[in-house]
Amino acid sequence: MNSSVEALRATFGSAIGRAIESCGDTIVYIDPAKLPEVMRWLRDTPEQHYDYLVDVTAVEYRDRERPLEVVYNLRSLARRTDLRIKVELDPQGDLTLDSVVPLWRGADWLEREVYDMFGITFRGHPDLRRILMWDTYAEGYPLRKDFPLRGRFSRAEQVRQALAANPEAHYSMEELSIAQAYDELPPDMQERLRRGERAKIPYSE
Amino acid sequence: MSKRTVDLELATPGLDAQGRPARIPLTVAGGEVERQHEPTLDGEHMLMNIGPQHPATHGVLRLVVELDGETVVRVIPHLGYLHSGFEKLGEYRHYNQIIPLTDRTDYLSPMANNVGFALAAEALMGIEITPRCKVLRLIACEMSRIISHMVWLGTTSIDLGAFTPFLWAFQERERIYNLQEMWTGARLTTSVTRVGGMMADIPDQFVDGLRRFTETYPKTLHEIDRVLTRNAVWVGRTQGVGVMTADEAINYALSGPMLRASGVPYDVRKDRPYLDYETYDFDVPVGEHGDVYDRYLVRLEECHQSNRILMQALDRLPDGPVNVSDPRVILPAKSRAMNDMEAMIYHFKQVMEGVKAPVGEAYAGIENPKGELGNYLVSDGTAKPVRWRIRPPSFINLAALPKMAEGHLLSDLIAINASVDIVMGEVDR
């Protein structure tokens, strides 16, 4: 068992849940409310020094009673040690969690993917929008267990939507406003963008 | 928005009083002539779309680029054009049925992906593979590293205007592909591993063929080195471009050659060894400046090191079985399955029910050509995983592209994007 578990318990007490070992990896469950604090402590404490975020992902079990888990794989490059942090969320409840992008920029796209595939919202993420599916994707969150393998819509409906989609509206309003090019668009495309056929892209550096 | 009007003189330049052609001097900074002829473009940014169908984006990556003149102000990548839902598909398949999906993620190094998934599944089930299988898998990994780096070298040199290394690199890749075809029957969709072993042992001429390859391959690398490493165009277009410092590289979770080019000496083969990598003699090249040029040097040296590992692996290749002798995970021989009742039952159970994994989860990270490929499997005790997560190295490396490209010229964006070494099958999965 990874020695960080004892140190975590000594520092955060009841915010640290059970710790288990599976196939050589230590897994620690922590309280979602304490996530940013614990992560910052793990990264900045010299004895811990988990400076590398290997992966962020989520797991939903086939058993409907089990909560949704968000999984953070941490690594200390200097100490060559891995630690897996898990946070449990009630699938029926509020699927919101604090973002770790302020700590690791590498979490940016990983959290976007978890949002895209599982519908978990990350508070404080600078640019939370879908990443693998398109912005207007309306069928839900593909990696959730209630999502059927072939999608929610019938093949005919998917084809109909694909044909009805506007192939020209590939830029969002935000992107077009960058270049102040909106006024130069043809009137029909301006009208379609005003209707919001593409979702907005909130972007801040 | 203010419409800008640019008055251009379209007529040919006239003659001055002495009869010489009147020319506009090009390098009078701020002079009278420039003020007359240069239109002002202050603060007006241009939006440019690159891809998804563009050869320099190495697949179906789409970049929306905001330009100030020729300088990149912001890059907004759009992904998902090749999204196939492999992770979702994996939840509906037996462990051995997932292996063909792994071919199609990073399709430039299919064998290494097969190995990565098999290692994760074996960690989950607690299977110890045979010594011969370990060496064969290591050969598969290093062959993949060579072909992937050769594709990277070829395509990047084409992006930066050098055509010859592309031909040399693809010729070497073709030789490895012939060996892959000899072993697996396929050039790309190899599916060479199985949980607990390999799909097939290597054929008779394979060892000789690979040994011949390892003998002549360094010559090609030296030739590529000679035409590129001190080439003025190559150096000028790659040095100081797309710099990531060591701290930034760690913060962005870069891995593989991208991380090591920034000066962080982390290689999964050395630091979390799998397949007995710790018993092989090889060096891990580490860069210093974290720019495109250092990434090139690191990858070129990795090809040399892979060649060294391959030679050692061929020397020590032990005899013995390739597959573990566990009838729960490895299919019995066809002749036994047809004649022996017990073998037939095992065959039936494996094909119909699949190999069951115990409750638990396993993460296996391997050093793929593009970075650390992680396979994270969660099992609830059935024959199909609850969750199969690929930690895609080129997806995570690509996330640093906006950071690296901003402030550089548009032509540098192409060099930086090439240096990330993405493969969209893996980025989009």
Task: Write a brief structural summary.
Chain A is α/β, with parallel strands linked by helices.
Explained architecture:
The complex is a heterodimer of chains A (205) and B (429). With 205 residues, chain A is of the alpha/beta class. Chain A has a domain at 4-143: NADH:ubiquinone oxidoreductase Nqo5 subunit (Beta Polymerase, domain 2, 2-Layer Sandwich), CATH 3.30.460. Chain A contains 6 helices and 7 strands. Chain A has a 5-stranded mixed β-sheet. In chain A, strands 6-7 form a two-stranded parallel ribbon. In chain A, a hairpin with a 4-residue loop joins β4 (68-76) and β5 (81-89). The two termini of chain A are 39 Å apart. Chain B has 429 residues and is mainly alpha-helical. Chain B has one domain: Cytochrome-c3 Hydrogenase, chain B (Orthogonal Bundle), CATH 1.10.645. Chain B is built from 18 helices and 8 strands. In chain B, the strands form 3 sheets. Chain B has a 3-stranded antiparallel β-sheet with strand order 1-2-3. In chain B, strands 6-7-8 form a 3-stranded antiparallel β-sheet. The longest helix of chain B is centred in the middle third of the chain and has 29 residues, at 131-159. Chain B starts with 31 loop residues before the first helix and ends with a helix. Mean pLDDT of chain B is 86; it is low at 1-14 and 23-31. Classes of the chains: A alpha/beta (205), B mainly alpha (429). Chains A and B meet through β3, α3 and α5 of A and β1, α2, α9, β6 and β7 of B.
